[in-house]
Write a structure and sequence with these properties.
β1 and β2 form a beta hairpin. Helix content is about 75%, strand content about 0%. It folds into two domains: about 50 residues, no CATH class; about 210 residues, Substrate Binding Domain Of Dnak, Chain:A, Domain 2 (Up-down Bundle). The protein is an all-alpha fold. The C terminus is likely disordered. This is AH domain-containing protein.
Amino acid sequence: MAERERSIHEMLKDTPSMNDTCGAVHTGTEGSGIGMNMVISSSSHSIGGAAAGGGIGPPNSLPLRNHSAPTTPMSPMTSTSTPGNGVLTSADGSGSLIRTSASKIDSLKNWSISTYKCTRQLMLEKLGKSQRTVDSELEAQIEQLRETQRKYLSILRLTRAFSSHFQHVVVTQHALADSFADLAQKNPELQKEFTCNSETQRNLTKNGELLLNALNFFMSSVNTLCNKTIDDTLLTIRQYETARIEFDAYRMDLENTKPELTQTAAGTATALEESQRSYAQHKEQYEKLRADVAVKMQFLDENRIKVMHKQLILLHNAIAAYFSGNAMALESTIKQFNIKLKSPNAVTGSWLEQ
C-alpha cells in the first residue's frame, strides 16, 4: 500500500503544472462540437508529447487570435463624416434625406413666422393701431369692379328667371297648337277655327324658340364675362391684397427693429439686415402685383364694354322684334349674331346621328 502511494506521488511530480499548460494555449475557435473535439484531442497529444520530451510548448493546432482588438461584422452601409457641416453621409443617400428634412423644417418655420406677422397686422388694422398702405385710385377702381360684377350677376339671375318662365310659355303654346290641330280633325263643323288657332300657336312657338336662343346666347356671354373674365382679374386683386398685408407687416417689423439699435447688442445689426432684406423683397412683390392689377383692369374694362355692347343690342332687337310680331326682324337678328338655333322641344339624337 505504501509503495502504491509513493508511486502516485512520483507520477504527480512528473506531470506538468496547470499554470504552464494554460499559458501555452491563447484561445480557441468558437465553433461546433466537432471543432471542440479536434482542439481537445490536439491539445492532449501536445501535452503527451511534451511530457514525454520533458518540456511543454504551445500547441500548433490551435489558431491564435488577438483579444485586444475584436473584429466586428462589416455593415453594408459605410458612413463617413463630413468635416464641413458635420452631417453624416452614407452610400444610400441618407445625408441628402437629412438635408431635405432640414429644408422642409426651415420652410415651415418661415411660413409660420410670415403667417403670424400677417395675422398680427390684420388685427392691428382692424383695431386701428397700425397704418395700412393705401392706393386711393386703384382701390376705388377695384371697388367699382366688384360692384359691376354684382350688378351683372343680378342681371344674369333675372334673365335666367325670365328665360325659364318664357320657356314654359313656349312649351305650353306648342301643346296648345297640337290640341287645336287634333280638335280640327275631330270637329268638322269647327275645323276652320281650330286650324286657324293651331297655326297661330305654331307661329308663336317658332318665334318663341328664336327668342329663347337669343336669350341663351346672351346669358352664356354674360356668364363667361362675370364668372371667368372678371373672376380672373379678381384673383389677381386678391393676390395683390395679400401682398399688401405682407408688405405692411414687414414694414412695421422694420420700424420696430430700428429703435433697438440704441442697445448696441451683438445680434441687433443682423436682425436689422434681415428685416431690411425681407422688407425690400415684399415691397418689390407688392409693386409688381399692383402694376399687374392696373394692366388687367384696363384690359378688362375694354373687353367688358365690347362684349356688353354686342349683347345688349342683341337682347334689345330680339325682344323688340318678338313682341312687335316682326318675325322677319327676329330671324334677321339671329342671323346677324350667328346664333345656333336650338329648339326647346327637340330631342337630342344619338352620337351615330351626330
